[in-house]
Amino acid sequence: MAAQQQDRVTLGKVVGLHGVSGWVKVFSYTDPKENIFTYRPWRVKFKGEWQEMAVTAHRNQGKGLVAKIESVNDRESARELIGSEIAVLRSQMPRSGGGEYYWADLVGLTVVTTEGVVLGRVDHLIATGANDVLVVEGDRQRLVPFVTDMYVIKVDLDAAVIEVDWDPEF
Length: 170
Prior knowledge:
Helix content: under 10%
Order of helices and strands: HEEEEEEHEHEEEEEE
CATH superfamily of the largest domain: RimM
Number of domains: 2
Distance between the termini: 28 Å
CATH topology of the largest domain: Elongation Factor Tu (Ef-tu), domain 3
Strand content: over 45%
């Protein structure tokens, strides 16, 4: 992962339009979803480039979220943002507590069984409600529940390794 990518943490993305005044629908990866608005300014990947953008207003809208971004004042300007990732600088994020990890910190780590078998690298994570799941890409895709002291034995961010108690055949 490039140094610039490690300096940013993706918090969500622009998924649609709301109204005619430049408001956009936002899908948030934060928990709770409204926390995406506590981090400012946003870095938005617009036309392949990361740009700093200020949120001037936001609110819940039905089951989703909508936001007004400074200098985006009409529906056509807002349409250009659809699909754009929303990130903040890592320095804007609170430090995670012991045994807690940001998903962004786990993506790309090598997953190794307690017997030393390399399963692959974490491609992404899935929230299932019961627990998060590591999606590990290697010789094949594996889904490993992120349950510490049961399946996830050790996370070593410095060594970029997650040790798991997992059958490589599963």
